[in-house]
């Protein structure tokens, strides 16, 4: 869908929702200085237009047993469109893959992976990379400290 033209009220609503999407419509309306019915209509319009894709809870990975973050570069042997889509589908099915990007130049894909520990990473690497005939090269980086994690898009 094309970009939706966002006015100042839309931007205020989106900024507040990016902070905390669990606020009630009345709370949101008060924070953005709009009436509750106007605010509700605007949020529905933003959802219907696909600007708001979904609302989720962000978890502390370490507190739920997924404390190891890996950033993984993948280079495929064959980059034909169907082979790229095949790998994307494989990565998308894997619950530990939090993000998957097709990139250029350099590797074909960059994955952000969240697992419990190194044995869990090794199991994932075997499922995704070692057993996949089209994977030529894997380069993994393991996070030792996260200094920033943000889901907010600057508006």
Major sheet details? 4 strands, antiparallel
Q: Which blocks of ≥5 consecutive residues have pLDDT under 50?
A: none
Tell me the Rg in angstroms: 20 Å
N-to-C span = 19 Å
Contiguous helical run count: 5
Instruction: Tell me the number of structural domains.
Output: 2
**Overall number of strands:** 4
Give the helices and strands as they follow along the chain: HHHEHEEHE
Level-1 CATH class name of the largest domain: Alpha Beta
Mean pLDDT: 95
- Strand line-up of the largest beta sheet: 2-3-1-4
Account of the protein in words:
The chain is α+β, with helices and mostly antiparallel strands and 155 residues long. The protein has two domains: 8-48, Orthogonal Bundle (Arc Repressor Mutant, subunit A); 61-142, 2-Layer Sandwich (Alpha-Beta Plaits). Helix content is 38%, strand content 19%. It has helices at residues 8-19, 25-32, 36-48, 81-93, 118-130; strands at 68-76, 97-102, 109-115, 135-142. Helix 2 crosses helix 3 (36-48). The model has no long low-confidence stretch (mean pLDDT 95).
Notable features of this structure?
single chain, 155 residues, alpha+beta, Arc Repressor Mutant, subunit A, Alpha-Beta Plaits, 2 domains
Detail the topology: elements first, then pairings:
Blueprint: H1 8-19, H2 25-32, H3 36-48, E1 68-76, H4 81-93, E2 97-102, E3 109-115, H5 118-130, E4 135-142
Antiparallel strand pairs: 1-3, 1-4, 2-3
């Amino acid at each position: 869908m094309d970009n939706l033209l966002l006015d100042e009220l839309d931007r205020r609503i989106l900024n507040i929702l990016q902070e905390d999407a669990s606020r009630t419509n009345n709370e949101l309306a008060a924070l953005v200085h709009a009436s509750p019915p106007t605010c509700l209509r605007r949020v529905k319009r933003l959802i219907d237009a696909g600007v708001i894709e979904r609302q989720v809870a962000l978890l502390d990975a370490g507190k739920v047993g997924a404390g190891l973050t890996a950033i993984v570069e993948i280079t495929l042997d064959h980059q034909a469109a169907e082979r790229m889509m095949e790998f994307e589908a494989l990565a998308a099915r894997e619950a530990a893959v939090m993000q998957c990007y097709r990139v250029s130049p350099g590797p074909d894909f960059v994955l952000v992976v969240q697992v419990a520990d190194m044995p869990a990473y090794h199991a994932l690497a075997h499922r995704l990379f070692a057993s996949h005939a089209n994977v030529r090269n894997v380069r993994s980086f393991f996070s030792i400290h996260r200094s920033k994690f943000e889901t907010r898009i600057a508006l």
